[in-house]
Amino acid sequence: MTIIAREGRAVAIAAKVEAFVRDIVIPYERDSRLGPHGPSEDLVGELREKARVAGVLTPHILDDGDHLTQRETAMVLKPSGLSPLGPVAVNTAAPDEGNMYLLGKVATAGQKRRFLDPLVRGEARSAFFMTEPAADGGAGSDPSMMQTTCVLDGNHWRINGRKAFITGAQGARVGIVMAKSDDGACLFLVDLPDPAIRIERVLDTIDSSMPGGHAVVAIDNLRVPADQMLGQSGEGFKYAQIRLSPARLSHCMRWHGGVSRAQEIATTYACKRTGFGKLLIDHEGVGFMLAENLIDLKQAELMIDWCADVLDGGSLGTAESSMTKVAVSEALMRVADRCVQVMGGTGVSGDTIVEQMFREIRAFRIYDGPTEVHKWSLAKKIKRDHLTARAA
């Protein structure tokens, strides 16, 4: 398929997704089934059934199982993010979107039928069990600190450990669990719920858009059949990178859509509200903030497209996704903050989704790697490239 044909395909899908989110999903933003730990399972199911009927469920995966390119995915995921409920409704939300991508790349045919297909159909949610409690000295941004262990016991692996900030664990039916063997990191596919995987508590966090919230989980003698290992023993970090670079970029895509909506709302407010004898937008202090938002949104869009092109070119894109995650999350934070400021008291109220977008983007600056960790990683690359060039 030519580039022009692919772009036309993506434009058509994106238009359907945007119409669905604006017309069907946004009215649900005041639904009583929304809570501090995300939308209820009942609400998720209702929205996904409407998306299925509208033909926009899991729009980034085609009927033949093939994925849109990353550039096409950006065109589709951005409008899905126009509402905090949009990605949940059309099945482009984290962690499911990243987990589907990983399984599509690494899982066996049998694993895909059992674990991937229900995710693609929107019938199940998933969770990625990697991060561990800081109090245990476990893995956070440094996965090499992993404390969760896996030991081969006959034709099963026995897994023990604790995990933290596991998005969507409560209510998930598919789990991807990372643990370390004598060979190194391993990934396992598990059916959920499982009595050996116990949710200790669901954390109260600043964000509230993801179903199931973020849980602390205890894994006590979980037995997983050997054929449910994802890939090979000791290759878990490599597989995680296959997932993490596109997943970071997908977060950027979705939240770009969300903050673009916040800009729409703040602009409408500034063009209607008057103060000191004129519209707020005619005051430079307000108008300039909206102009700066426009600039940040465009620069973020260009970073997303650049990184998408790198990944589409076959690169793992680790450095590029780090740069994009830093640049986009920080830019969107500035935009969300200005939107709140433009709207004053209304901006910090629950009367619009601007306040929620501010909270969601603040959390985005931390998950999938805090800004500082990505900068540290990039600095290491700069040093390594410099020393290599000097030695050449």
TrEMBL record:
| Acyl-CoA dehydrogenase/oxidase C-terminal domain mapped to chain residues | 234-381
Segments forming domain Acyl-CoA oxidase/dehydrogenase middle: 127-204
Give the Pfam families listed for this entry: Acyl-CoA_dh_1, Acyl-CoA_dh_M
- Write out the entry's keywords from A to Z: FAD, Flavoprotein, Oxidoreductase
Query: What SUPFAM superfamilies does the record tag this protein with?
Result: Acyl-CoA dehydrogenase C-terminal domain-like, Acyl-CoA dehydrogenase NM domain-like
InterPro entries, per database record: Acyl-CoA_dehydrogenase (IPR050741), Acyl-CoA_Oxase/DH_mid-dom (IPR006091), Acyl-CoA_Oxase/DH_mid-dom_sf (IPR046373), AcylCo_DH-like_C (IPR036250), AcylCo_DH/oxidase_C (IPR009075), AcylCoA_DH/ox_N_sf (IPR037069), AcylCoA_DH/oxidase_NM_dom_sf (IPR009100)
Question: Can you tell which superkingdom this protein's organism belongs to?
Answer: Bacteria
Needed cofactors: FAD
Protein family (similarity comment) = Belongs to the acyl-CoA dehydrogenase family.
Under what name is this protein listed?
Answer: Acyl-CoA dehydrogenase family protein
UniProt source species: Sphingomonas oligophenolica
